[in-house]
Amino acid sequence: MEKIQIPLVDQYDRHLNYLRISITDRCNLQCMYCMPQEGLPKLKHEEILTYEEILRLARIAIKLGVRKIRLTGGDPFMRKGVFDFLPRLIALSGLEDVSLTTNGICLRENLEKLRSFGIKRLNVSLDTLQREKYKNITGYDGFEAVWEGIELAVKLGFHPVKVNVVVIKGLNDNEIFDFARLSFRYPFHVRFIEYMAVGVTDSDMPLHHIPSSQIKEQLEGLGELIPIPKSAYGGPAERFKFRDAPGEIGIISPVTNHFCHMCNRLRLTASGGLRPCLLFDREEDLRGPLRNGASDSDLAAIFLKAASKKPHEHDSVSEQTTPFSGQMSSIGG
Ligand code: SAM
Ligand code: SF4
User: Fold this and answer.
1) Could you say which ligand is closest to the alpha carbon of residue 201?
2) What is the pLDDT of residues 196-206, one digit of tens each?
3) Does the reported pTM lie above 0.85?
4) How far is ligand 2, taken at its centre, from the CA of residue 155, in Å?
5) Which atom of ligand 2 is nearest to the CA of 73?
6) pLDDT in tens, 83-117
7) What angle separates helix 131-138 from helix 143-155, to the nearest 10 degrees?
8) Fold of the CATH domain 18-331
9) Surface-to-core class of residue 170, CB atoms within 10 Å of its CB (0-12 exposed, 13-18 middle, 19+ buried)
10) What is the DSSP string of 42-78?
11) Ligand 2 mean position, distance from CA 14 (Å)
């Protein structure tokens, strides 16, 4: 591989050392805040980056200073061959952290495999603790499977297991306490995320976020929230714990208190777009150059270009008028 030395630092001096890779737009759920009921057009097989292409791009990104990679989707377990791909990704020299975000439906039966590859950290999305509501939100009766996967992950020593809860007004905000209480029983990190009005949802059912300040106020009703300092890969969450609780609470506020000033992410979409900001409709195409004989230096230059285009901050997404036109499932959230 050619030598590449310029690190990925944007014009606001943010070091972009975290790459999120959506390996597929396919998903086995249809969460109401992410996909419309009629589904979304699927990328064609040839539109999706091959594993070889992803590995090549990951190697280049690492040369440019990326140290952490998270696989997402769609659901990463929905892509054939993921268990051959993962160990190859993990083995890339210079990478310090590989993790995975999943809806958890296929987690239980794959945990041993993930553990054998050396994966330690998992993010699992779960927006309700009620079976019927789960079915209503996701279109699938899968609560038990996800819950069993989460419990088993903890038993098998995965840490942290982060449980991501997208909080939506009138839908699951009445479960904030129930989720927070889990941190007294389990070493989970329960993370409340403000719903972003950006997915392709059904217009006859508008969804609304709850500001993180209100989430926090509610949580304070359960006990004193003791702040936890940020860790190396702690991400954008404001972290807390309740006294004597083994678990943690995180609050992520992309809408009311966005964390753009400390954003260290780039996103590689399933179709090979390099996206400097989730909520900014701009991508640099990597797939075309990759398939047209670009050298590693050419591809590195595209990474640097994307970094240079990273906006200082995104527009508010509190209104339904955001210019975002991507698909969460191919960008990876
Ligand atoms: N399928 C996997 C999952 O659900 O964890 C990975 C892909 S999903 C797009 C990644 C994350 O984006 C999930 O935690 C999901 O809850 C979150 N997400 C999707 N749409 C969202 C929205 N409109 N607002 C906030 N978070 C959203
Ligand atoms: Fe739900 Fe994730 Fe699938 Fe979107 S990609 S429908 S958030 S499980």
Assistant:
1) 1
2) 887 655 565 68
3) yes
4) 25
5) 5
6) 999 999 999 999 999 999 999 999 999 999 999 99
7) 110
8) TIM Barrel (3.20.20)
9) exposed
10) PPPGGGSPPHHHHHHHHHHHHHTT--EEEEESS-GGG
11) 29
